Amino acid sequence: MTQDLGHNYYKELIDLQDVSGVEAQIQRLLDAPIESVSDLEKWLEDEKNLTNKIAEAMIGHEVDFNRNTEDAQIKETYLHDQQVIQPLLLKYEAKLNEKCCESPYFNELDEDRYGLMRRVRESKVKLFREENIPLMVKEQELSTKYSEIMGGLTVEWDGEEKPFPFIQSKLDNLDRVVREKAYNKMMEAYRQIKPDMDAIMDELVQLRHQIALNAGFENYRDYMFVVKNREYSVQDCYDFHENVEKHIIPAWNRLAEVFKSKLGVDTYRPWDNTAKLMKNPPYADVSTLMDGVSEMLGETDAYFADRFDYMRENGLLDLGDRKGKSPGGFCTGLPVSGETFVFANFSPSFFSLIALIHEMGHAVNGYLEYAEHGPIEEYQHRMEIAELYSHGMELLLLDKLDRFYPEEEDFKSAQREELRRAFMMLFGPLSGDLFQHWMYTNPNHTAKERDEKYFEISKRYGLNPVETSGFENEIGMSWAGTLHYFQVPFYNIEYSISMLGALQLLENYQKDPQQAIESFKKGASADYNQPIAAIYKETGVDFDFSEPAVKRMGEFLERVINQLGH
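== M3 family oligoendopeptidase ==
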């Protein structure tokens, strides 16, 4: 059943095709008597063990599907999970949460160990509505449809049919003619799928709005803040948007002048905003990529390289582009095996190198957490924490990019590009966050209004220095290429918040490399039951996205770039 490269990378300890058998195991938990605090703790452990078995099988099936969206049997298995098992879990999760929360021993559980779990469960009990189950199943089906469309997207290039990531990688080319051609080819591809994407997004917005209304909220944005148990408010997000616009965008525009000069162009066009100044792609094949990243990780910390080499040897990496793979990249944990799996669908490019390093930050975090505390439970997943270690890994390896760019000027260009990416991470996800605030607080918007709003927000942020005339429609529709809007709504601002923490980590690394690495490992293995701020503190940084913090880290980032020389 497993579609991989000769490895069984996940464990199927439960047969999800045997629906009545799965239901019977969950029912046993519901029927179990709880007559003391220790009974409740034992019950929570039993529940976790069953949940992990189900989760690992479902994660494995989902990874299989992402690796090969065109295999009928794999798709059938994955859709069974989404259409049959997921609704069952949603129904029983609510009953299990009620049983737990209504236990007279619930509030006697130790606060340090169970406090976060208690708050999340109480929140879920309040949010659950049975009528939302079919809506959530439909939402997942639309998400799957998006993956299929994007996984099958190809573009004609010099008479050959190429996977979409191949064309994206051409935006790195030093030749402006090639970049412009690639940009136009990408837009041509988006135009082909735009009607489908509009139909999917229109339906998703309405589904999600109804889910929120059913749960007693005015809109999906407010609902999601509760679902995600955010430790900050909607107003904090709006303030962050404004602070970045005030302090980061002017610095971004100054940096654009430097890149414009380096590129030898008078005006920045959309295909120049992504250009890299290195002469060639950093690698030609996946094996070379893995060799180099292993060396970079090893020069930073032996444990980092050990984990990467282990994953490589055990079939836990699927890198490189091919038709039929879903777009993008991700790292996912396997809670029974205690493994992490990294998936990527990128052609050779600077971005694909950085994406692998980024995902290895997640992987190292996952392995350290598992070693200290066992599998991270669903309620402990907070992306403001997870992204701190992926962005942090990128910046800890900044001084080792010469492994792929041995010439001094290329090396400096690669470092500048990674720091430019850090800048982009301070505002790009924020513009995506603002876009979603607008979409879900205006659920009856039209497709045309959505494109216009996306263009307007893009111009305020990342496209601020770009001459966009004649490409308003292309830019307006390019939201269709961002899987987050379809599959993980309101997962955006976390990237920007965590980048502020990662930049502090870089600042610490410049002062004392060994101490910064030890702090990284300490935070990455911290108890995830703590507040976000406490985990950041264990990493040696502050969880702070106030105006002074944004201003200070923007100035630091600009200073580091200037130190590389122009």
